[in-house]
Known about the structure:
By secondary structure, the chain is an alpha+beta fold.
Amino acid sequence: MRALFLLASLLLAGCAAPSTAYTVAPPEAVDHEATQQEQMMNAGKYARHANRAPASPSTRYPMEQRVVSVAERVLIAAAPFCGQRTMPAYAISVGAADSGQPTVLNASGSLRTGDRVTTINGQMVPAGSKGWVMLNQVGAQAARTSQTITISALRNRQQVSEQYPAVAACAYNVALQNNNQWNAFADGETVHIESRLAQDVSNDDDLAFVVAHELAHNILEHVSKQQQNVMAGAAAGLALEAIIAGLGGGGMSGEVARMGAGVGGMQYSQDFEREADYVGLYILAHSGYDLEAGPRIARRIAEQDPRAIRYASSHPSSADRAASLQATIREIQQKMATGAPLVPNAAPQG
């Protein structure tokens, strides 16, 4: 028992912890949410689909274009959380779903979703996918020197123009993958979205929360923190083995070090997921996407695996996540109502 206490003490001393005071729903709220999720599962497939957020018009566009459009808006909204790790970008994204002129998907200023883009910086834009490629190439080149770009478009046969200065966006990559998994993950540098998830999550607000959650993992350096915790666990296990061997309890097999590494990897694992949910929802608030997308995605996880409703492993249960996200929504709405800074609460020092 003393040895186990020593291992736990060594682990806590060397492990990296969350940096925010993320919200955790009380047990009664989690239990209520779990009951609702179980009722949702028992209601059948068609009832579950009827309660989902409606599909966004962007689903008519190629998946890559839709993901880029949603991700760009999230990356710009998250810039205040990324410190010095930012890059120039423009608050407009387009898609090409047909043989006509590329269409505005997301934009600030006077341009609106559905406007047909005709020129960029006075250059004629080709129709169809060639126009989409050209707009991205010209935009990327202009962003390198933070130039202001001018976009002209047609709306009901009327010409509309807007100037877009370069703005800051988080300098993390977003990649679409096709591994036939309903999944998304972060590796410290890139947000990876599986195509199966992107296709199934047909509402842009919901997809934006997925991107924001994974982006939060990168911003908060959870991957490197988890690696640090694995190393701390291995070191604690090795130290414990040395103590046991010194007391005549056997040789140095490395078994306790391996066990320590596994325990270290799990240390704060659920906390990091809660923190990514928490910060991800703040990013969503800055982006203007629907905050209720957070709890909706937690419930979609329950649809993928009903055991996740009450069972927690490396991630909290889906009921825990949905209830805690609802608590975070209330926290954000209170800050909006009182004019308080829309930033996550910092973890207590010491």
